Amino acid sequence: MRRHPLPLIYLRLALCPALVRAPVALAALLLVASACGGSGTDTAPNTGNLSVTVSSPSGVTTSVTVTGAGGYSRSITSTQTLSGLAAGNYFVSAAAGAGSDAIVGSLYAATVAGSPATIASGTNATATVTYAATGIPGRMWVANQLGLTIGGYSSSQLAASGAITPVATIGGNGKVGSHANSVAIDAAGGMWLSNNKDSLFYFTAAQIAASTSAAPTRVVVGANGSVTSITSLAFDGGGNLWASDQRDRVVEFSAAQLTAGGAATPVVTLTSAFGSIVRPFSLAFDVHGNLWVSNYGNNSIASFTPAQIAASGSPQPTAGVTGSPGLTGPLGIAFDRNGNLWVSSLIDSLVQFPASSLAAVGSPTPAVIITGSLRTPYGIAFDASDALWVASYQGSKLFRFLPSQLTTSGAPTPSVTITGGGLSLPTGIAFAPHSAALPLH
After folding, report:
1. Strands across the sheet with 268-271, in order?
2. I want to staple 289 with a disulfide (CB 3.0 to 4.6 A). Which of 155, 306, 311, 434 is the partner?
3. Of 379, 435, 390, 432, whose CA–CA distance to 415 is shortest?
4. 201-248 pLDDT tens trace
5. What is the DSSP string of 389-440?
6. pLDDT by residue (tens digit) across 148-184?
7. What are phi and psi of 434, to 5 degrees?
8. Spatial distance between the Cα atoms of 2 and 231, rounded to a whole number of angstroms
């Protein structure tokens, strides 16, 4: 049988020991409706309103998240009044905006005023989000596990197939360790990356505007063995960074810990309940703030609500996928703008589970199965035009599939194939800035 690609490559290159464990069955997952929170329509007593004004230049995509009392989470892209909010503090955060472009636009910084906003019975609070140009161009960033670098590609470079050298390269000098495998972009357009071990490295948006061999601005290290083998990173709406650890746990580093740097014990650690977190490989948040985890160890996807991940524990998923076709060795996961879940897997396929099938734990049949040129598709991410980019790990290639190629099952020829230029076992993919039409993560 085919095994997990990382140990296979490591054994051949003597880079690190294999991480092999017998699969654990996913069982006893609760069939409970997802608590998405924050409908914004409640008019009951003891509630208030929050008016969020979003200002931006014409053509700039925006993405704002409001979180607060009772696990409330709401994503908006324009000025709105959120009504019927329970009393408490509400936090407004905004991801960097993107100028109009088919793949990835230039960076616009977001300034937030009025956060946190305090809601009391019958009150109307206000907050503002203002976007302004930074002059920093957008990039698609790709982690190269063997090359030990992060390559940044401009929109023009990604428009056509070819052997392309990234317009910017980060790392490659030993300052970010070895085996770069995951990239996440913060709200300011800065880059966090992991090295398949216990550390997180940060480069600012200005620092990564061009190639650099400089040391990262900050490094966060999991204290006292709190993390050991990070394979994926994802930001929640509050600017906290989540990491999957191959030691059957998912952890959260708070925004304050990321700012401080240094040794840190995660503020939240989630562990397995009846096989809910088994060799977690990738993470993604949906538009409701639910955390989704792909479990390589037992071929499943598990989802946890904002309330479930607010504190450490072993929560039982309220939604998830197990036993479905295409889930053998799930690697990358991503949501499209319609809330459909896409999964890349070890068996050289991409599968799509429609949003309507994700309300509970079950074994839905994929709506779309893509095969063909993929060779161990690893990281996946959507660009500004809803095209799906895939890092082909064993083939050391990048593929782009247009939205029209993602509607039916088959083996479509990628619209763009990128090779060369330092691509060497590509893993994680992230856009900076991120498309506002998609979840922030």
Report:
1. 230-235, 241-245, 249-253, 268-271
2. 306
3. 390
4. 999 988 888 888 888 999 999 999 999 999 999 999 888 999 999 999
5. EEEETTTTEEEEE-GGGGSS-B-PPPSEEEE-TT--SEEEEEEESPPTTS--
6. 789 999 999 999 999 999 999 987 656 565 567 899 9
7. -80, 150
8. 20
Buried b (16+ CB within 10 A) or exposed e, 407-438: eebeebebebbbeebbbebbbbbbbbbbbbbb
**Range 321-327 average pLDDT:** 94
- Torsion of Cα atoms, 279 then 281 then 284 then 288, to 10°: -10
- Residue 205 makes CB contacts below 8 A (sequence gap 6+) with 96, 107, 134, 136, 188, 189, 190, 191, 432
- CB count within 10 Å of CB 33 equals 11
How many Cα atoms are found within 13 Å in the side-chain-facing hemisphere of 223? 10
pTM above threshold 0.85: no
Residue 208 · residue 170 · CB < 8 Å? yes
Both tokens of residue 210?
Answer: 């061009």
Written as six digits, the tokens of 20 are 């092999």
Paired tokens of 108: 């616009």
**Which DSSP helix (H) or strand (E) runs through 255?**
helix 255-260
C-alpha to C-alpha distance for 147 and 173, rounded to whole angstroms:
10
313 neighbors 277 (Cβ within 8 angstroms): no
pLDDT-derived band at 439 (thresholds 50, 70, 90) equals low
Question: Within a 10 A sphere around the Cβ of 57, how many other Cβ atoms?
Answer: 12
Region at 289 (left for phi over 0; alpha for psi -120 to 50; beta for the rest): left
Question: CA 364, CA 321: separation in Å to the nearest integer?
Answer: 7
